[in-house]
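thoughts on these C-alpha cells:
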Amino acid sequence: MKEMRYDTCVVGGGAAGISAAISAAKNGARVLLVESTSVLGGDLLSGLPIDGCLTTAGEWIVGGVLTELLEGCEKLDGYIGAIYDRRNIWVVMVSPAVMGYVVLQKLAEHGVDILPYTQVTDVKVEGGHIASLLAKNKTEQILITADTYIDCTGDGDISYMCGVPYEMGGADGELQPMTMVFHIRGVDPKRLLAFALEHPENCGLGENPNIKKTPRELAQELYDLGIPKLFFSSKGPLLKGAIERGELNTSMLAFNPNAKDGSVLTVNTTRQSGKDCLSGEALGETMLSLTEQVKSAFLFIKNNIPGCEKAVFDGIAPRLGVRETRRIKGEYYLTGEEVAEGTKRTDGVAKGGHEIDVHGAGTNHIRKTIKDAGAYDIPFGCLLPLGVDNLLMAGRCISADRVAHSSARVMGTCIAMGEAVGLAAAIGKEMGIPARKVDVQTLRERLKKQGAKV
C-alpha cells in the first residue's frame, strides 16, 4: 500500500473542490485533490450557466478563485460574459471546453497534486478525528493522511463515512430531478432572438417583481444584445402544448450560449424524477432513459423553434446533472427564510444570490427571488460537519434545509464556499490549529485580500 501525506486533502473535483484546492495551495498548503473521474471542474465543464455569481440586481458576489478562472477563459477567448436573462437572474457563460483546460492550468500553476480516477473507499476515524483515508485506483491502494480533509463530493460521501448525520430530500423523500444537458451548434441567433421578440409569451421574461418593463421590451433588449440566453417557460403556449401532447417532459427549456457568436448552445430541459440519486444502478438507469428525452427535445427544437432548423446535435455534458442528495448536518443550519430575506451575518464566509429554485416532477418548479434582488451570507458553521474536528465541507452537501439548499447548490456559490474552506485549512496550518478553530474575522479579512466577496 502506498502512503501519501499532505497538509490538506480535498475529495471531489467539482466547482467547490477545485476552488478549495486552489485556495489552500495559493496560501502555502501542500494540497492533494482526489477525484473519482477524470472531469476536474465538474459542472463547470457542462456548458450550463455559472449561477450565483451575481445577484438579480447585477452585483458581483463571488470573486477570488472565480475571477482567476474567468480571466483564464478570457485570455483564451472562452469567456462569453455575464448576461442578464431578462427573466430573473444574471448568469456567467463560458466555453466549457476552454474552462476544462483553465481548471487544469490553475491547479498546475498553484502546485495542487491531483489523483484522478481514484475513489475513497474507507475513512478511519478515531475519537472524532480522521486519522486517514483509504483510496483505490487501477494500480494501487493508497493511505492518505492530512491535517485537514475537505469534503467536496457533492453527495457528502466523506462526512457520511464518518457517521455525520444528514438529511435528504423533502418530507416524502422525493429528490429534485436529475438532468442530462446537451449541446447544439449551427444555431442562427438572430432568427432565434427574433422569434422570442415576436412571441414573448413563450419566454420567461420579467418574472422578477422588481422589473417594470413588459415582456416585449425585455425581448427587445435580448434581441439588441444578440446573445440567445433564452428561457422558454412551460406556461407559454409553445412548451405547454408540447407537454400536453407528450412530446416533452419538463418545466422549462433553457438555451445557454457557449460561443460569442451565439451559434453554440447548451440545452437544459430533460428531467428524471425519483427517490435515488446515489445508487450506481439507479444512476445508470437514469442515464440510459434520459437519452430518449435528449432525442425528443432536440427534434422538438429543430422542428419548432426558428433559428434552430439547421442546428446539429453536438453531444452531451461529461456527466449527469444531479441537483440534490445528502445535506450534511453542520454546526449551523441555513434556512430558506434566511435565504429569502437576504440575511447578512458577521460570520459569513461566502455569499449566495441565486433564486430559490426547487425543481419537482413534471412541470412542478418553485422559484422565488431573494428580497430586494440581493444576497445572503453563508456562515462558516454551515461548512463544519458535526462531530469531526479536522473535516470541512463545501458544495451542495452543505448544512441547510431544502429550500436554502436549492439556492446555495449552484456553481458560483459552490466556488465561494470552496475558497473559504480552502483558505481556512491553510490558515489553520499556519497557526498550528484545527481549521475549524480559525477565527472567522481573520478568515473574512484574508478572503477579502485575495479578492473574495464576503
The domain at 2-169+324-449 is CATH 3.50.50.60 (FAD/NAD(P)-binding domain). The chain has a mean pLDDT of 95. Residues 15 and 41 are 5 Å apart (CA to CA).
